[in-house]
Fold:
Amino acid sequence: MLKQRHMFKLLAGAGLVTLATAMPVAAQEIIKLGLSIPLSGAGANWGKGSVFLCKQAAKEIAAEGGVKVGGKVYNYSCVAYDNKYNAAEGTKVAQALLNRDGIKFIGGSLGTAPVKALQSLSERQGVLHFTTAWGSSIKGPDFPLTFTIMNTPNEISYPLIQYIKEANPAVKTVALLNPNDASGQETEVIARKAWASAGVTVVSSDWFDRGTTEFQPIASKIAATKADAVDLGGTPPSDSGLVFKELQAIGWKGVKLVEVGTGAEGLIASGGAAGEDVYMGAAIVFDGPQVTEKQRKINDAGRAAIGESLNQIHIGFYDAVYALKAAMEQSQSVDPKVVAKALPSVKFNSFYGPSGFGGKGTYGSEQQILVPVIVTQIKGGKLTEVRRIEPAEMKSRK
Structure:
């Protein structure tokens, strides 16, 4: 016990935090699911909600009898480390998960830069890797063990921006702002193409470092462009609220959107009334007609745990666990490489309903989860769903 406490102190001092689910003692085997996520900084709630939903899925599967492979019953535990949303910490987390803990399944990872650091080891070491990272550079035939478990810019940007243009036909120009890291840079490239495809001109594209707290200079620069719309791309909710608050103070009025916008609470908490009318592409409404009682109950528990509603980033970590269960049972294997080969052909019930993996036409291989794009907007200080767009590939399979 003293040795365990000493190890925890060492990990805490290194900026690493480990969380694990407690599984029933009746389970014959436990498979650890490693998580590389931000548990501190502006993206902390993304990470905390992701841990919550990984644990939730593991608990549900255990209650339903576990994962049955080769005459054995397996259950999952979730082991999470703080990657602080940067490459340096992501490298430390990768070493901890794969080389020290010996984990063979990454149940979820977040942030393109830290995910790349993890992927450089996971692919070489034969580790199956689920991720919510947005970067297209981490997908494709060169990375056969990496699977994306949420919609990314290629899935979100085009339908989101097309809808916004249709709803706001007067928009002719847009200013972009993104975090100056791998996630933001890859998001910006796709956003440019999506706006161009909608007939809108990008008049400026700016960057900020994660951890920035003073956005007035950036807001002034954006306002000076007189753009009809401002697209904050991959900016976290709390930072987005600060940017829109500064733009409102300057007097800028236009269409506001955050492509990776994951919820109203964080944005309104920092931006107040400036959050009104903001469009988002990665949030989900839990009081609409399409929401099930189970989804509402999970969200209520999640809100109690992290202080805000669950979003599509969090939900990816729930879906990863169910996708893994389906692939293990279909392949009757716990070998990561064998399970990875089964994933493109499995069908499973995601948080949203029936799902699978596709995206070969975009990425060259079937590694992208097929789930709806949900367009939301803040109205009267409340998140509302304005459009739900099911992927064409999933429609064709039905």
Q: What stands out?
A: The first strand starts at residue 29 and ends at 37.
